[in-house]
Amino acid sequence: MRPNENIKKLITGLKVEASAELDARVHNAIDNALDKRNQFDSTSYRPSIWRIIMRSPITKLAAAAVIIIAVLAGIYLITGKTPAVTCCAWAKIADKVEQIKTCT
Fold first, then answer.
1. Residue 36 within a domain
2. CB 86, CB 75: distance < 8 Å
3. Does the pTM exceed 0.85?
4. 3 partner at 20 to 30 Å CA-CA among 33, 43, 57, 95?
5. E-strand spans in the chain?
6. Alpha-carbon distance 84 to 53, whole Å?
7. Chain centre distance of CA 59
8. In a domain, 86, yes or no
9. Please, which residues have CB within 8 angstroms of residue 93's CB and are 6 or more apart in sequence?
10. What is the pLDDT of residues 11-40, one digit of tens each?
């Protein structure tokens, strides 16, 4: 049986008498739902900073660059070594990875 036929059978099976009280309750429910939606859509709603960043590819790239720069600056500040020494450490890691023999 199709959903439309189900709905039609359910509606014909309902025995609701229209009255002013029922109309008022329906209108109040609709007004309350619209008020809630308008409260959510108001200008007081501010999306989080991460939602703003992830919306645009340029801001994603900029955020990634800032994070990479912060990590590199943190490594430099924590180790107290010059960037040349740090670069050598990264090169040693690359050499170790190249020596790994894998089988697929």
1. no
2. yes
3. no
4. 33
5. none
6. 33
7. 15
8. yes
9. none
10. 777 777 777 888 888 888 888 888 877 665
Domain membership of residue 1 (yes or no) is: no
Task: Assess contact for 57 and 67: CB atoms under 8 A.
Answer: no
For the chain, which residues score pLDDT lower than 70? 1, 38-45, 80-89, 103-104
Dig out the tokens for 3 from the structure. 């959903």
* Cα–Cα distance measured from residue 64 to residue 62, given in angstroms and rounded to the nearest whole number: 5
The domain total for the chain is 1
Q: Which residues of 32-57 are buried (b: 16+ CB within 10 A; e: fewer)?
A: eeeeeeeeeeeeeeeeeeeeeeeeee
Structural domain boundaries enclosing 90: 52-99
Residue 68 in domain: yes
